[in-house]
Amino acid sequence: xxxxxxxxxxxxxxxxxxxxxxxxxxxxxxxxxxxxxxxxxxxxxxxxxxxxxxxxxxxxxxxxxxxxxxxxxxxxxxxxxxxxxxxxxxxxxxxxxxxxxxxxxxxxxxxxxxxxxxxxxxxxxxxxxxxxxxxxxxxxxxxxxxxxxxxxxxxxxxxxxxxxxxxxxxxxxxxxxxxxxxxxxxxxxxxxxxxxxxxxxxxxxxxxxxxxxxxxxxxxxxxxxxxxxxxxxxxxxxxxxxxxxxxxxxxxxxxxxxxxxxxxxxxxxxxxxxxxxxxxxxxxxxxxxxxxxxxxxxxxxxxxxxxxxxxxxxxxxxxxxxxxxxxx
Length: 328
Ligand code: UDP
Hints:
This protein is an alpha/beta fold.
């Protein structure tokens, strides 16, 4: 199938592109490279540098390449930033997504896979969090993804658009060739590995007084390749109807457990400093993945935290400055 991947130069988009190509699909990457990296784009993908904010750019790309489906990764994705800059999220993320959906509708493209988020569940009543949990977006970022989910709901009724909304928990790890390179880097695992590489003195633990076994926040880390595979399975299942899945590993690990595992893997002492809590961090976020397992036969290939961190470590060792020094 020919798939247009927005944000295919970013972390999850580039690794999903790699997996799509490995499984025989054709990929057109559409990315403005504000956050993504040209070197992250698979050499067998067609690359279109374009901006979703400019509707004619995405419209022209769809008209020219005629994809059968779209996977939409391109978005601002920082919860904390969205609390400081709500319009960037409520306006740009939603406007860009709607431009994409309108361009698809104009050209009869009726398959949509959305990168959604666990940030839809700010006040979960049950843990692990299932798909039918009450939706309470935790930030303007989460709200912007929820608006995308609702838009897809309506486009199915008005245009016959089939969609899969995949609500990620904490994506982590790397493939052999592609990994996580954000600027600035704010995520726990790459920051911990930067300490092991000698690029940072210590890792800050944002609060050790949470109501969890060791006092630090618990998250559900899912290997990015398992996440990529979930997109490909969801795409194949769209003919049978639209769907929504929570995508986690089903297991929670604390910040201290992540750091301890990284110490074992890297052999570096990884000094820590306890700092105050980060605003907006819930104590525990763990996803239930029974639905996607039962319906699509999805099963994480890398469920162990050790394997997830090891893959990230191998990539960061090979690319100590991310894509900045990649020889592609
Ligand atoms: N965290 C931390 N120190 C850091 C970065 C993150 O203690 O320098 C914690 C953060 O509070 C959260 C967990 O690590 O509990 C995962 O954070 P990350 O930003 O990677 O993902 P999030 O859960 O916010 O999507």
